[in-house]
Amino acid sequence: MKMASQARTMHDCSRENQIRSGKSGMVGRVAWFNWLSAALALTLLALLAACTSEPTKPAEPAKPEGPELISGRSAFQKVYIAARGWAPDAKPYRLESTATSDGNGHDGKWAVWRGSFASASRRSEKSYTWSGSAADGAPARGVNPGNEDSYSSSNSSTQVFDIAFLK
After folding, report:
1. 14-48, pLDDT tens digit by residue?
2. 3/125 Cα distance (integer angstroms)
3. CA angle 144, 146, 150 (to 5 degrees)
4. Pairing mode, strands 124-131 and 142-150
5. At what angle do helices 2-21 and 23-50 cross, to 10 degrees?
6. 10 Å Cβ neighbour count for 166?
7. For 70-102, how does the pLDDT look when each residue is reduced to its tens digit (9 = 90+)?
8. Alpha carbon of 65 to those of 58, 62, 137, 141, 159: distances in Å?
9. Is the distance from CB of 113 to CB of 132 less than 8 angstroms?
10. If you write DSSP's letter for every residue of the chain in order, what string do you get?
């Protein structure tokens, strides 16, 4: 008990010394000033970052892109990746180009290609279409999956071929 009262007395004495010397008020004022300065600086920085000197420009309308014409080998690689995502054992049995109004097949390059793949483990087949055309009636740009259908390895029209033959 005696220790508790002595500790209190020492604390009170220390507090009284700070008040007499004026340090207690000064420490509080300096902390308040630092906080106020930081808040003011952050506010000004936020205002400056939000303002620009350039007027806003209206967005330019998107220009219609021309057709992307690629060879059968390039198109095959694009649809083959999608087919392997569908079935790891997917093997090609057909690759064909499709005529569009903006792709005439010059130098063996077309704007639309379709590759058909068969999966023996799934006993099904699926076609994928790659399009680089924006013409009317053409599929959307990129690789587009077709419908899945049943597959029989004995069917002569769906005999798979070796990819090495494309080289």
Report:
1. 555 555 555 555 666 777 778 888 888 888 777 77
2. 90
3. 155
4. antiparallel
5. 70
6. 13
7. 999 999 999 999 999 999 999 999 999 998 888
8. 21, 9, 16, 11, 37
9. no
10. -HHHHHHHHHHHHHHHHHHHHTHHHHHHHHHHHHHHHHHHHHHHHHHHHH--SSPPPPPPPPPPPPP--B-HHHHHHHHHHHHHHH-TT-EEEEEEEE-BTTB--GGG-BSEEEEEEEETTTTEEEEEEEE---STTPPPSEEEEEEEEE--TT-GGG----GGGG-
Residue in the block written with tokens 């029989």: 152
- Residue 100 pairs in a beta bridge with 103
CA distances from 106 to 25, 51, 86, 99, 111 (A): 88, 53, 32, 11, 10
Token pair in block for residue 47: 């205002």
Q: Exposed, middle or buried, 18 (CB in 10 Å: 0-12/13-18/19+)?
A: middle
- Token look-up 């000064």 returns 26
Amino acid at 61: P
Q: Which tokens is 64 given?
A: 């219609």
In order of 37, 42, 99, 137, 155, the CA distances from 34 in angstroms are 5, 12, 73, 68, 84
The answer to whether 112 touches 131, Cβ cutoff 8 Å, is yes
Place of tokens 């087949």: 125
